[in-house]
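hey can u check if this looks right to u? its 308 residues, i copy pasted from the old doc so theres a chance i mangled smth
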Amino acid sequence: MHSKDMISMFDIDANAVWKIFKITDSLIQKRLAMEDYTPLKGKSVALIFQKPSTRTRVSFEVGIWQLGGNPIYLSPEEVGLGTRESVADIARVLSRYASAIVARTFSHEDMETLAKFASVPVISGLSDMFHPCQILADIYTVWKHKGSIVDVNLAYIGDGSNNVSHSLIVGCAIMGMNISVATPSDYPPNQAILEKARDIALKTGSKIEIFEEPSQAALGADVLYTDVWTSMGQEEETEQRRKIFKEYQINNTLIEMANKDCLIMHCLPAHRGEEITNEAIEGPGSIVFEQAENRLHVQKGILVFLMC
């Protein structure tokens, strides 16, 4: 892996994040001013997707196009990542055609192999362990609303062992934001990731807490964040997870425990009535759709940061 990859939150520091945010802001301004800015002109970006996607695919395709580049979407059937052809070979071949690779894989090992063998930047559009683009867009959204990141208390309610939870924990640690995770005892965050995040948090002053009760995490929260109970690839566990996670829902009761102007966030797709109520997602504190829009802006910032 070279320094120009972003396959997990551990690949960047606060300095890089602020640079990306600064680029993001300037790209939004250029767009509003109808300024012609095409830093990716003449460059193609390969999008390798093993999993279905609405936001990641569309935001990357539109973003690459807006920056003057050419997005090339490769479906699971076309690539056969690791089945039809080895991951290493695909990485080396695509590096000779494209200027960057965006990948959405089931296994984080496949992502690491792509990054190891590609000679162009590899950006994670999600793996089973991390979702860095999502979390950078989330932190950017919080910053835009709160005017600060340090001393903001974010409470994540739900599956502590998924890619969003892992990335939030590391992202908050890097940026000095406080995070409390409420998750059932059998679904804790990955221990190695948590320990590395705690080490970073010691330097940045971020506080990381893991609770079992949603109310413990929600108390004094500036942001309430959730994700689906069942991630892609876990469909056979759906019924079992519904029973286990039924108390882990962002609803009015939980919102009342949080701070007065608490923001409601969800990385989508949302299963209304499960991890979040309809009232919560449509309520005055919800910034869910702005959060989704910022995927486009921040990913453009990431592309420019890594490729230009």
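The chain has two domains: 9-130+295-307, 134-291.
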